[in-house]
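User: Second chain of the day. Same drill as before.
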Amino acid sequence: MRLLILGASGGCGRWTTRLAHEAGHSVTALVRPGTAFVAPAVVVVRRGTVLDDADLAPAVAGQDAVISCLGAQRANPHNPWSPLRPPLHIAEDSAGRLVQAMNVAGVRRLAAISAAGVGDSLSATNAMMRWLLRHSTIGDMYADLAAMEAVYRASALDWLTVRPVTLVDAKAPSLAATVVPRFRMVSTISRADVAAWLLRAATDPRPITDRTPMIGYR
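Assistant: Same format as last time:
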């Protein structure tokens, strides 16, 4: 398949690009100018931003599906109270532009990253996460993701926004990720497994039925 990957320079995005290439797909990555990104030679790297229609529209054209690993980032990713890095509201703003570009190009399948605790999964989270959502900039990030999901929900796309629990690093996907009912204090999932889940969702020919699965390890 011909796949466009947005946010390819991030942790999940790099894994998604790698796994898609290894699976034999034709991969295009849209990466911001000046962002360090090394991809396999056969991966097409387009430089631009999802917030510029002149960059996004030609990247979407001709694709079979889009995988978005976009989301807000904190200046210090290890500090929950660190301010968000601009551009603010990137998940919501890019979603609106992406829906428009996909509609024009006739591309219907979209798989994107959200987070466990967004939207109706809030009640399934642990007490510490709920406290952080009220008192730190994680709450701002989740609000952006909730707005993103609302944009996709209002569209006619065949879409999925996966909601992973706490992200960790791993050397390879374990393929042990599954839909989980609770986001516990000890719940984790590797970025590699999130990427593998996104890739399966983007390339599965069957219509998507579970739009917002919360995933982790049992």
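The mean pLDDT is 96.

User: Great, on to the next one.
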